[in-house]
Amino acid sequence: MSQVRLEQVTKSFGSITVIPPLDLSIADREFVVLVGPSGCGKTTTLRMIAGLETASSGTIRIGERDVTELRPGLRNCSMVFQNYALYPHMTVAENIGYGMKVRGTPKSDIERSVAEAARILNLGAYLNRKPNALSGGQRQRVAIGRAIVRQPDVFLFDEPLSNLDAKLRIEMRTEIKLLHRRLQTTAVYVTHDQVEAMTMADRVVVMNQGRVEQAADPITLYEAPANLFVAAFIGAPSMNFIDGILERGEGGLWFRAPGNVTLPLPDERAKKLGAYLGQAVILGIRPEHTMATETNLPRISMQVRDVEPLGPHTLAIGKVGPAPFTAQVHAGAPISPDDVIDVPIDMARMHLFLKGTGEAVG
Ligand code: ATP
């Protein structure tokens, strides 16, 4: 069993605390992605699990072992780095087998493990090449091969795809996912790319300033973000936010905001939102929930500033009242900058946040 547990773990550099007490549990075989903006403490957290940074306080456990004071080599984690960290003078085979050689593993065992890793990662044809004769994606696969042959309890990935071009990143994303499905080794993966997080993870941990804002499976994060931070971070293009107020009106509760925004709350949502009547709230609506699939949706008026045709659909970018707003419209919709358009809002998909705390209330 290779679950990873951080219990009240903190990290300070000098007088600056970058991780306040952090509790995080990663289940055996789970693929967990830590995601968040630059500087939020993802890499520091990963490096503390690896033992490359010492926790300032708290306990780190891998399986049943307390590894808090253990040096990296004894934790049985394999880390894959963003810059690959390959030895330039060694061949692919030597790079993959190096760790085993250092530990005195018999040559025949090394050869067998290297061949198996090369087979899994499609590197068989490159075993005698040096890293400088490989593409970025192949180099990253060698780095992953080196991690695999150690048969670690836990894989740790530190932004392993950031140096690859967009197309290769998508391919490697799938390869790493398939590899995890096959090896079933507990994995902790750090990225600042929310799409990477959403597509790869069993569970995504959204971090902000060293804290966990929300930890959940990708669909829950998308459909039920716990607060404004998660709502803004997950989803591309980002969720729209309109500051307004909840009022009682004809037939139930209404959301009203500057720019003639008057939107009825669906009955089933209104029931639990009565407590927030008269309060300042923020309506969240994703651009993809503004596309007219039904004709009887309520509408708001949007001033268009720019139009981005993306192929399958088009984005209209502009403002609703004072609030920046992006709407998804049908490809080829006859819209131009400076138009004022009526945007249908799918209120069944809306989110509501308290203005003061940012907490999601419905
Ligand atoms: P990125 O996506 O940019 O890599 P991150 O979320 O991984 O960011 P960390 O690298 O964990 O963030 O850094 C968290 C904070 O700790 C940052 O403010 C960073 O400047 C600080 N930090 C990290 N390492 C050190 C160090 N050795 N000394 C001082 N401060 C550090």
UniProtKB/TrEMBL annotation:
One of its GO terms (molecular function) is ATP binding. It comes from the Bacteria. Its main location: membrane. It is found in: Cell inner membrane. Pfam families: ABC_tran, OB_MalK. Keywords: ATP-binding, Nucleotide-binding, Transport. The keyword Transport applies. Residues 4-234 form the ABC transporter domain. It is a peripheral membrane protein. Belongs to the ABC transporter superfamily. This is Sn-glycerol-3-phosphate ABC transporter ATP-binding protein UgpC.
